[in-house]
Design goal:
Blueprint lengths: L13 H14 L30 H6 L4 H21 L4 H13 L3 H14 L4 H13 L3 H14 L4 H15 L2 H14 L6 H18 L2
Length: 217
């Protein structure tokens, strides 16, 4: 999952990509649906917006899946060098964002929110970080807080595609607000005509309209 005017894209390191892939494979999580806004460029296809669940990993993978404690330990290990850097530069927003992303990737959402909050104290207009924080709140089950933070992000970046996409999903999945979701996605496509996930968004909108028509019969 970006407001390119405020938060430059940061390419992933090979180590980070390997670690995140290992986590996703081990626990069988969906890295999909939502766009992670404060990472590297994330068009809808590469941000895994097509399905809500990953392919079956088989019994062997599931039997070796780490629990919450194991995921936290993995995140702590990956964050350790960043935390050491943070000791000498405690208010560095890029470091704080990277640490937040590390815990987000490992599904340690409360910890991710803590670090994203520190970034936003210094840079409240950072729509990408606020979008990620809102998405973390969604995964924590705080739907109303998530929507409030998405809306606040939009006050700083009204056409941010990641924010509009994720907000639409939360309205759809969390509130059953199909009208609201459709409005957000229409705004996304109107304001971002070259959006790389356009085809997928249009398919989701068509599916939603079809479901609504069936229910209204």
């Amino acid at each position: 999952m970006t407001d390119t005017n405020k938060t430059p894209h940061r390419p992933w390191t090979r180590k980070r990509a390997i670690v995140l892939s290992a986590v996703c494979l081990a626990v069988g999580i969906s890295c999909g649906w939502f766009i992670h806004a404060s990472k590297s460029p994330a068009p809808a296809a590469s941000a895994k917006t097509v399905t809500a669940t990953p392919p079956s990993m088989g019994s062997a993978a599931h039997s070796q899946a780490p629990g919450p404690t194991g995921l936290k330990q993995m995140a702590d290990a990956q964050a350790m060098p960043l935390l050491k850097q943070l000791n000498s530069d405690p208010n560095n927003p890029e470091l704080l964002t990277s640490i937040g992303n590390t815990y987000y990737d490992a599904q340690q959402y409360p910890t991710a929110v803590d670090y994203y909050s520190l970034v936003l104290k210094a840079r409240p207009s950072d729509a990408a970080v606020r979008t990620d924080m809102a998405t973390a709140y969604w995964y924590m089950g705080n739907v109303d807080i998530a929507i409030a933070e998405f809306n606040k992000a939009l006050t700083y970046a009204p056409t941010n595609p990641s924010t509009l996409f994720n907000l639409g999903l939360v309205k759809w999945k969390g509130k059953m607000d199909t009208a609201g979701a459709l409005a957000d996605w229409k705004k996304l496509l109107a304001a971002n005509p070259n959006y790389e996930g356009k085809e997928q968004v249009e398919k989701m909108m068509a599916e939603m309209k079809q479901q609504t028509a069936i229910k209204s019969r």
